[in-house]
Amino acid sequence: MLGKKKAQKADKNMKDKDNETMEKVISLCKRRGFVFQGSEIYGGLAGTWDYGPLGVSLKKNIENIWWNMFVDSRPDVYGLDAAILMNENVWKASGHVDSFSDPLVEDKKTKKRYRADHLLEEAGINPAGMSIEEMSAEIVRAEIKSPDGNEFGEVQNFKMMFETKIGASEDAGVTYLRPETAGGIFVNFKNVVDSFHPKLPFGIAQIGKAFRNEIAPRDFIFRVRELEQMEIEYFVREETWEENFEHWRKNVWNYVDKIGLPRDMVHELEVGDKDRAHYSKRTIDFEFDYPFGRKELYGLAYRGNYDLTKHKEGSTANIDYVDSESGEKILPHVIEPSLGVGRTFLAILTSAYTEDELDGEPRVFLKLKPSVAPIKVAVFPLLKNKPELVAKAQEVFEMIRTEIPQITFDTNGNVGKRYRRQDEIGTPYCVTIDFETVESENPDDAEVTVRDRDTGKQERIKIDSLVSYLKEKIK
Ligand code: ATP
Fold this sequence. Notes:
Elements: H1 4-31, E1 35-37, E2 49-51, H2 53-72, E3 77-80, E4 85-86, H3 88-93, H4 96-99, E5 101-106, E6 113-115, H5 116-122, H6 132-141, E7 156-159, E8 163-166, E9 173-177, H7 182-187, H8 189-196, E10 202-211, E11 226-236, H9 241-258, E12 266-270, E13 282-290, E14 293-302, H10 306-315, E15 321-322, E16 329-330, E17 333-340, H11 341-352, E18 353-358, E19 361-366, E20 377-381, H12 387-401, E21 407-409, H13 415-424, E22 429-433, H14 435-439, E23 447-452, E24 458-462, H15 463-474
The chain binds adenosine-5'-triphosphate.
């Protein structure tokens, strides 16, 4: 067994390594055009990030896989794209105006602000169910100081919704940027029922932006102020909530597999009574082992029929669901799998980031599952100053592109360098056109070299069968 000092040192070494991994991933994201700091040339804007060309591609893959699995492949889930700006009464009815807040505490000297619950957690104290007064008392009792070594003031509730004004007049109405996409789903529940007459159980799904005025945005794109969510409200009869909860629990795992997150890095956390919203009978947080710790990736909650009940009261509209056979009027209960796009993106990148040695040289590569890789195939002519190679490579490139659009063409530097560049962005396959390809006596026998990102192994494949070979590989 390690002695205490050795264990502490090992722990510190691990932490340093994890910080280093984060720094490397952030720097790769900037260098290769995945993610840039928001408003960078103006000094940035905390909690906002811009996705560059490769980032958008990866993000769209994450979203399209989700949409395909849960909307396009299912007859019982309907898609929606609701407005971000909604009537302020939506957020009054849902309880967000009164209670969507986080506990904030300020360093008395520097005035820097922190999440009180996070400070307590870091000090090994569970803040679940504590009032802000209790948190203040705990901070004093446990002698928790700010990272600058100063005392904290009292804990206060900090409202997280971004408020904005609608219209030009002085008394323009207030509204909010939505803090979650779910609001748009509940408000359109009746519209979907009236236009599609779905039988229970059925779901409504939406992907879109949400905004939260986080006190301390941090950990790159993990905690941001402008985020994207993929949410489903799956409406069920109350007596079937448990089986439907299990169904969505399995589906979260299916999605994790589909996007290639290692299962052993994803963990279910049963949220205890004190931590759960009062209307929720069961919530599971799916946590991920990020380099900065095990943190929430997704949430799965049984929300009863709290939301529909509140919107029925708040709007006074008749939003009951009428059973077509029995004529019975009910407000269905709901299971909500809520997935963050940015947190998925970060989990994919941090778990895929790999350093190894290939042919005696160190290299960095992203071990991305082909389905999420922003570029699936790169095509090169062996030499860029041989027109016959370039022309053939372009022909092959166009042929593949019609079937596999996420593709690139590269002639810069030698082939070894091009491989490394593609490895770094996670391109699973590189196709090289060489002299043998163009000199083949019978064009039907012409072959190219296909190189595998993970093993570096190369195979000769006939151009004739290249597209089907690649399609099979990147499935
Ligand atoms: P946390 O406890 O980390 O603040 P939360 O419990 O408030 O998260 P939910 O309200 O359950 O999060 O939101 C559903 C999902 O939306 C989360 O599981 C996460 O993937 C994503 N999400 C929420 N807040 C943020 C944020 N500030 N930045 C990025 N993603 C977020």
